[in-house]
């Protein structure tokens, strides 16, 4: 155990974890049908690649990643695709539960590229909350020096016990997953941060830590205090490093993953099993059999809660996620998705609706619990008054929306709601002002695509001609008749080749940069859309293709000319 | 969205350690004024209670009236008891058995002008009770500076006094001065020792004021204990007040009263715990609160020692209310993750 450091503020809400953590982990029954949303992750929705009537097995790819920040979606039951809409794919079960898995890999003797591709193919995303694609996170850090992989097992929100149970049941597998990710990002140590209210998981980990190798694993038990599991605060607590505002953990050499994600990553590699199920905490006083369940993605929440003994008479609201940061569901017809960690079927008595909001009396209670040391009362004031410059001056965008301020506010002001509203208003304004810019980027993309298509055509024709009439004169005439940018063999083919090589590496660098910018932005604001950056990345990729083709062609030309004139 | 709230849970490890909801917050402050009010009544008679009851009644009536005119819902606003509290605080600041119309004028200034015209609870830049007090002090100095010496619970003139039927000359003969006032008015060249020996103040006056001050302190401790106020403002205020008073005292012990005298007479402790801590009109960040408290402490001594008014809590508080926007602007804490260069200070 290592030292832990302090963060400011924080609150001690009731834990209410016992009901779900006492029951042992079970499997929810196989659903009759599933509805799999195309967007269960941050970034762009996946694109369906099956049609109604297709029969699928568990693990069949049914929707493909679209763009950099996106993830594959796989069938979670075997059966027939019945319906595809713009938002989801529905599958009717054949009750066979036949699986389609990928080849098992031993990560210790597989190269990083293959492993990353595997995580990508398996649709693995962060299971803790935002659903950020895991392979992208692993690659982002390739450009930063990462020394520490943090296993975020704090699970500080009330009610949720999914990580707790995961660690109790699969401590060795989670650590093996951590070793896998650590090897991918080059971390030299693994630290598990866990709140001291999970003695069983701590005991299981204490045993497992010694067995885990090659990277050394440290178990750090931290005091229970909300929101200790917030990424930046956990890094402060465990490493005493402060992630800069607008920064990423990678900026201070750290990377955080939650236990469920590590387990999913390991399963994808070791068992070749795509992400088709996850552990979900079902709890709340309105269900009779609370506990943690292995649930196939796409299972309807209603079916699931009914299985756990839902008492609809006592039910007042269903919350997805925790009571501090989760959302109240307006319908139970929604499916479980990759990011569903907890469902709370609450009675009125356990989560009463607040009294009417009273005016802010500037008592400062909110300020004293804010873990980021903001002034929530001032943010509230300026958010309501829509004084946008003041909001930025008071660092609205540093707010992690933890809800500690709302929890203590004696006037029962829904502060976080104010902040979310203000944030989306400000973001909308930014998007509006950037519209012209976006149009320009879309135009550039179109140009790049046309250039690429032209270059491809050129290459095909070139290949055809080279096959039939491999004579230099014809080749020249042809190239002259269809000029493509800088493909004309010049007087000095060697110099030409060199400049094309430079152009190609510049295009490569541009792609890398666009990827980096996009991945970074997407990680900072996982719930936002980053269309413009995806467009810019696509443009860079098209340009790279053009440069590749031109270079290849010029190389051939150079060869031909050297053969022709020895 | 946070669906849990501290006031709804009784199974939290922290249950009972967070501040109560706003409505009961104000009621707690009223409860905490009781020791002070009882002590004052004991020393200065029922005139103290009549002040408070009248002021509180005016507060509730005026607030309802304005809300009605502004077409705002009345019950929720009255439920927060803030008008009642303003009445209690202004009532406790006035000389005992003040005439009803004086109280009424003060409460109009406090509730109607200082609070509702600015938009109601949470929007008033100035402490309402102190606005009322300052207006009265400036407009009716005779009534405001006459403070009867300690007297039995019920005096003969109580009723006519309250009804405003007693001629001012009679009040004059009945009343003395507060110790602060008396010390201030002492003849030039009279040493402090000679002043105390001269018997200008009626017997027991000083003791009565000390007793009352300690009663306010007791109420203040209750507020701190219930987490209704934070320690920042009272500590900064009293600390700076003592330091300033000591400096003056060291400079000229005959001209300026001792730090202990400043601490235990007049409205120092009442002001430190009940007036300066009004969250709405105080600075809001913790650092801001410290600055705000220091400012009030310093101003109290400067005005008392150098200015024209015997007690200075009201003016000091109002002056610092005026500085709050500035203080708030320059005490934005530096959020976690911001480097020293990009401090919270405005750009
Ligand atoms: S806790 Fe609520 S009432 Fe108190 S200052 Fe903050 S927002 Fe205002
Ligand atoms: S929600 Fe934002 S302002 Fe409120 S406590 Fe959390 S970080 Fe601070």
From TrEMBL, chain A:
PANTHER family the record matches: ION-TRANSLOCATING OXIDOREDUCTASE COMPLEX SUBUNIT C
Bilayer topology annotation: Peripheral membrane protein
Gene Ontology MF annotations: 4 iron, 4 sulfur cluster binding; electron transfer activity; metal ion binding
GO cellular component terms, semicolon-separated: plasma membrane
Keywords, ordered alphabetically: 4Fe-4S, Cell inner membrane, Cell membrane, Coiled coil, Electron transport, Iron, Iron-sulfur, Membrane, Metal-binding, Repeat, Translocase, Transport
EC category name: translocase
Organism per entry: Vreelandella nanhaiensis
Keyword rRNA-binding among record annotations: no
InterPro entries membership: 4Fe4S_Fe-S-bd, 4Fe4S_Fe_S_CS, Ion_transpt_RnfC/RsxC, Nuo51_FMN-bd, Nuo51_FMN-bd_sf, RnfC_N, Soluble_ligand-bd
Biological function: Part of a membrane-bound complex that couples electron transfer with translocation of ions across the membrane.
Protein name as it appears in the record: Ion-translocating oxidoreductase complex subunit C
UniProtKB/TrEMBL annotation, chain B:
Cofactors required: FMN
GO terms under biological process: electron transport chain; transmembrane transport
InterPro entries xref list: NqrB/RnfD (IPR004338), RnfD_bac (IPR011303)
The keyword Transmembrane is assigned to this record: yes
A GO CC term assigned to this protein in UniProt: plasma membrane
E.C. number: 7.-.-.-
Positions where FMN phosphoryl threonine occurs in the chain: 178
Broad class of where this protein is predominantly found: membrane
Entry coiled-coil feature ranges: none
Keywords: Cell inner membrane, Cell membrane, Electron transport, Flavoprotein, FMN, Membrane, Phosphoprotein, Translocase, Transmembrane, Transmembrane helix, Transport
Enzyme class: translocase
Membrane topology recorded in Swiss-Prot or TrEMBL: Multi-pass membrane protein
Subcellular location, record wording: Cell inner membrane
Membrane-crossing residue ranges in chain numbering: 29-62, 100-118, 130-148, 208-225, 232-250, 256-277, 289-306, 312-332
Similarity-based family: Belongs to the NqrB/RnfD family.
Oligomer status and interactors: The complex is composed of six subunits: RnfA, RnfB, RnfC, RnfD, RnfE and RnfG.
Function: Part of a membrane-bound complex that couples electron transfer with translocation of ions across the membrane.
Protein name: Ion-translocating oxidoreductase complex subunit D
Organism whose genome encodes this protein: Vreelandella nanhaiensis
Gene: rnfD
């Amino acid at each position: 155990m290592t030292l832990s450091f302090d963060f400011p503020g924080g609150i001690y809400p009731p834990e209410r974890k016992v009901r779900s953590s006492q029951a042992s982990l079970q499997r929810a029954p196989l659903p009759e049908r599933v509805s799999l949303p195309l967007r269960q992750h941050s970034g762009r929705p996946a694109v369906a690649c099956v049609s109604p009537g297709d029969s699928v097995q568990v693990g069949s790819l049914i929707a493909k990643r679209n763009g950099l920040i996106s993830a594959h979606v796989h069938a979670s039951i075997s059966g027939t695709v019945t319906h595809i809409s713009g938002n989801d794919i529905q599958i009717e079960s054949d009750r066979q539960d036949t699986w389609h898995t990928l080849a098992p890999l031993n990560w210790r003797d597989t190269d990083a590229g293959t492993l990353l591709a595997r995580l990508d193919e398996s649709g693995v995303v962060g299971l803790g909350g935002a659903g950020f694609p895991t392979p992208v996170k692993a690659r982002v850090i390739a450009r930063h020096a990462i020394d520490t992989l943090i296993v975020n097992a704090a699970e500080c929100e009330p009610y949720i016990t999914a990580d707790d149970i995961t660690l109790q049941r699969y401590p060795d597998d989670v650590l093996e997953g951590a070793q896998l990710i650590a090897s991918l990002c080059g971390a030299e140590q693994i630290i598990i941060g866990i709140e001291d209210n999970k003695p069983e998981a701590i005991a299981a980990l204490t045993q497992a830590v010694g067995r885990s190798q090659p990277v050394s694993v440290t178990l750090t038990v931290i005091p229970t205090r909300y929101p200790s599991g917030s990424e930046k605060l956990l890094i402060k607590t465990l490493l005493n490093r402060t992630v800069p505002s607008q920064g990423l953990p990678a900026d201070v050499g750290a990377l955080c993953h939650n236990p469920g994600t590590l387990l999913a990553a390991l399963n994808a590699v070791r068992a070749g099993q795509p992400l088709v199920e996850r552990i979900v905490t079902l709890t709340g006083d309105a269900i009779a059999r609370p506990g943690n369940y292995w649930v196939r993605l796409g299972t309807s929440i209603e079916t699931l809660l009914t299985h756990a003994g839902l008492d609809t008479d006592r039910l007042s609201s269903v919350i997805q996620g925790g009571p501090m940061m989760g959302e109240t569901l307006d319908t139970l017809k929604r499916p479980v998705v990759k990011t569903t960690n907890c469902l709370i079927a609450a009675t009125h008595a356990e989560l009463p609706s607040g009294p009417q909001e009273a005016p802010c009396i500037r008592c400062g209670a909110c300020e004293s619990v804010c873990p980021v040391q903001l002034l929530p009362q001032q943010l509230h004031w300026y958010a309501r008054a829509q004084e946008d410059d003041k909001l930025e001056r008071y660092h609205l965008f540093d707010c992690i929306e933890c809800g500690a301020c709302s929890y203590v506010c004696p006037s029962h002001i829904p502060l976080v709601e104010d902040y979310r509203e203000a944030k989306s208003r400000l973001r909308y304004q930014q998007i509006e002002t950037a519209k012209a810019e976006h149009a320009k980027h879309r135009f550039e993309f179109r140009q790049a695509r046309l250039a690429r298509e032209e270059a491809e055509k050129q290459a095909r024709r070139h290949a055809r001609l080279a096959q039939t009439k491999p004579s230099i004169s014809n080749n020249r005439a042809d190239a002259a008749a269809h000029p493509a940018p800088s493909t004309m063999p010049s007087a000095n083919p060697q110099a030409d080749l060199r400049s094309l090589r430079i152009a190609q590496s510049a295009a490569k660098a541009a792609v890398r940069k666009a990827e980096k910018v996009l991945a970074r932005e997407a990680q900072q604001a996982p719930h936002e859309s980053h269309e413009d950056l995806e467009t810019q990345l696509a443009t860079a990729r098209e340009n790279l293709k053009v440069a590749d083709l031109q270079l290849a062609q010029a190389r051939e030309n150079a060869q031909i000319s050297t053969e022709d004139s020895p | 969205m946070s669906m849990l709230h501290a006031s709804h849970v009784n199974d939290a490890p922290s249950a009972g350690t967070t501040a109560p909801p706003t409505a009961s917050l104000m009621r707690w402050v009223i409860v905490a004024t009781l020791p002070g009010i009882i002590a004052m009544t004991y020393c200065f008679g029922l005139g103290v209670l009549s002040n408070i009851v009248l002021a509180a009644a005016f507060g509730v009536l005026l607030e309802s009236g304005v809300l009605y005119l502004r077409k705002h819902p009345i019950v929720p606003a009255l439920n927060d008891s803030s008008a009642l509290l303003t009445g209690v605080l202004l009532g406790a600041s006035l000389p005992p058995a003040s005439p009803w119309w004086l109280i009424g004028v003060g409460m109009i200034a406090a509730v109607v002008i200082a609070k509702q015209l600015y938009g109601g609870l949470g929007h008033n830049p100035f402490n309402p009770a102190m606005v009322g007090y300052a207006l009265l002090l400036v407009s009716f100095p005779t009534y405001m500076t006459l403070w009867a010496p300690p007297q039995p619970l019920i005096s003969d003139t109580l009723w006519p006094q309250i009804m405003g039927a007693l001629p001012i000359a009679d009040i004059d003969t009945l009343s003395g001065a507060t110790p602060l006032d008396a010390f201030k008015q002492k003849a030039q060249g009279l040493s402090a020792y000679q002043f105390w020996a001269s018997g200008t103040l009626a017997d027991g006056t000083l003791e009565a004021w000390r007793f009352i001050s300690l009663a306010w302190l007791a109420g203040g401790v209750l507020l701190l204990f219930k987490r209704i106020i934070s320690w920042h403002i009272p500590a900064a205020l009293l600390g700076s007040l003592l330091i300033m008073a000591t400096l003056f005292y060291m400079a000229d012990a005959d001209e300026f009263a001792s730090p202990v005298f400043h601490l235990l007479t007049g409205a120092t402790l009442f002001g430190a715990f009940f007036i300066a801590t009004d969250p709405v009109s105080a600075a809001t960040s913790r650092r801001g609160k410290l600055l705000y408290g220091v400012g009030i402490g310093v101003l109290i001594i400067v005005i008392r020692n150098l200015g024209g008014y015997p007690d200075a809590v009201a003016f000091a508080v109002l002056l610092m209310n005026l500085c709050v926007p500035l203080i708030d602007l320059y005490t934005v804490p530096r959020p976690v993750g911001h480097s020293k260069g990009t401090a919270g200070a405005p750009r």
